[in-house]
Amino acid sequence: MNTRKILMLCAWLLAIGLTQAQTPQLISYQAVARDLTGKVLSEKPISVQVEILQGSNQGTAVYTETHELTTTKTGTINLLIGGGNAQAGTFAEIDWSKAPYFLRLGMKQKKETGYTEVSNTQMVSVPYALYAEKAGSVDYGNSFEDNPSNNTIKYGRDFVIIPTDWELYNGQFYAAFGEDGFHDTYGEGEFQFNIVYLTGTNLNLDAKIDGFPKYDYNDNHYQSTVLGRFCSFRIGISEGKNKIETTLTIVNENDETLISFPVMIDYVDMK
């Protein structure tokens, strides 16, 4: 039997739900599972072992946990590190000021007896909210905090948005916020991100994209929880449309706009 592996398409680590002491400390991690031929492992049960190593990629494991998961149709898995089945160490007791830390992941399928290492990467950015909780304060450093369109919920104080890099079926996809917006290439592309709540309560926020007929795109958003909401948009781009500029909007439960970001869809000849 060929050993399976996870192709990690996303290196975004985000600390979530940490502004109140009673709120669990978690890190969200997303990946896509593929076999050795590159084929997506669609709707397959897998087990993932997570280890946080201190000092180097072969350092001491300060925390170990496992997750029993089933991949989605697209092979996606979503881990909440710190919320799995703890095997060794205590996640809440990790001292993030004593960097560097490395994240090592292993994977096995049902008939396999041991975990195969599939990823070992440095956690380049210390999970800022985890570290900030110990430090007592955090500066989100964004220009939108003081000027939201809604004066009740503020971006940067009550929630943040973490974009994700994903692979296209027939090209490359790059996602970013700010002046560059989201970029996509010709074909059917998907961009995904997390709206992360920092209040310890369910803000019930959502995301919308304007300027596309319904048949040109579809969205698949997870249910909003006290931790936040995972959002996904899949967009089909016609070759004749060289550039499409539109807007991604974050709204509250009353459908009122909180903040908007530019979206730019570019046709790129990948040949």
What is the assembly state of the chains in this entry? single chain
Percent of residues in helices: under 10%
Q: What sort of overall outline do the alpha carbons produce when their principal axes are compared? A: globular
Distance, first to last CA? 35 Å
Within the largest sheet, what's the order of strands? 7-5-4-8-9
Order of helices and strands: EEEEEEEEEHEEEEEEEEE
Q: Which structural category fits the helices and strands?
A: mainly beta
Q: Please mark out the parts with pLDDT under 50 across 5 or more consecutive residues, or reply none.
A: 1-24, 131-151, 165-188, 267-271
Radius of gyration: 19 Å
Mean pLDDT: 67
Query: What is the CATH first-level class name of the largest domain?
Result: Mainly Beta
Kindly give the count of domains: 2
Please indicate the percent range of residues in DSSP E strands (runs of 2 or more).
35-45%
